[in-house]
Amino acid sequence: MTDLRSDTVTRPSAGMLEAMFSARVGDDVFRDDPSVNALEEKAALLFGKEAALFCPSGTMTNQVAVNVHTRPGDEIICHQYAHIYYYEGGAVMRNSGASVCLLGGPRGLITAAEVESHINPDDIHRPVTSLVEVENSMNKGGGALYRYEDLEGISAVCRKHGLKFHLDGARIFNALAETGEEPAKYAQLFDSVSVCLSKGLGAPVGSLLLGDQSFITRGRRVRKAFGGAMRQAGYLAAAAIYALDNNVARLKTDNDRARYLGNVLQDLPFVESVAPVETNIVIFSLRNEVGSGQFLARLREHDIHALPIDSRTVRFVTHLDFTEDMLLRVESVLKSLVF
Ligand SMILES: *Cc1c(COP(=O)(O)O)cnc(C)c1O
């Protein structure tokens, strides 16, 4: 089976399983799990932050950050397609009573000027703007990337107005593989950073939240209240440590394979257009008479699986378990299709 639905579909490799089997564990609620402690220390060091918190999912790391950074009724500025708003079940309202100020903008990216012009004045009629959030790479924007200078600009606006700045870096390593920034320099732009271990890094479960000590201390309390404090989580942390040691450098390959698929798709007669491919996500639209349902059904006949975005748009996501052989087979199947 060739699975291009998501980079979450990977299974632990033999080496990762070995690391999990031999993990030293303890009760992490008592802070007794050496593997979780090692992971949190390693991640904090890597991103140049004081502390880290291991959580079961990226939704939880994002929502813990929202909860610590805001008070009920506060407003969060983010893109209308931000994962924290669009794909997390209304959690910012449900869990934190926060409201949102949704910005537009191509490919899911927001700008410093847009952010600054949407900060509410100090007026009792208006919600208090307290948090700005960006996503890099931008999932629903087709894996789009921010330029470092643009993030510096947004960060400066946040500092100037006393706002917190959160990065949803679910795929931050895919982004850094392209732009070349050091994680430790990059993370200084933000008050908090969320990183997924179960996407391109290939771990089975888990995400990391990074920030200063007082933020993480408060986050640890919120994680407990959200039901995310785990016990012998070291088995999962061991997989995450293995992923950070072994699966970061190879992410460039995933991005390159996505670009290759984008180029193949570009030249096919039944493809209308392909969004620019900057990381490991390819979003493309099919000609009207083809449609995603029919197209995906034809791929399934070859045991190739992908997800529709809408009736004419399809997404491919490359990952650790999508090999060079699979890439070449997908290419030849795509080139053989006639509608
Ligand atoms: C996957 C993802 C998350 C977190 O997802 P979980 O499934 O909760 O781990 C957060 N943000 C973005 C942009 C994502 O793609």
> What's the rounded overall pLDDT mean?
98
- Helical content stands at 40-55%
Overall number of domains: 2
What is the rounded Rg?
20 Å
Largest sheet: 7 strands, mixed
CATH class descriptor name of the largest domain? Alpha Beta
- How large is the share of residues in beta strands? 15-25%
Bound small molecules, by name, code or SMILES, are: pyridoxal-5'-phosphate
Distance from first to last alpha carbon: 23 Å
CATH architecture of the largest domain: 3-Layer(aba) Sandwich
Per the principal axes of the C-alpha atoms, what is the gross shape?
globular
> How many H/I helices?
14
* Sequence stretches where pLDDT stays below 50 over 5 or more residues: none
CATH level 4 superfamily of the largest domain? Type I PLP-dependent aspartate aminotransferase-like (Major domain)
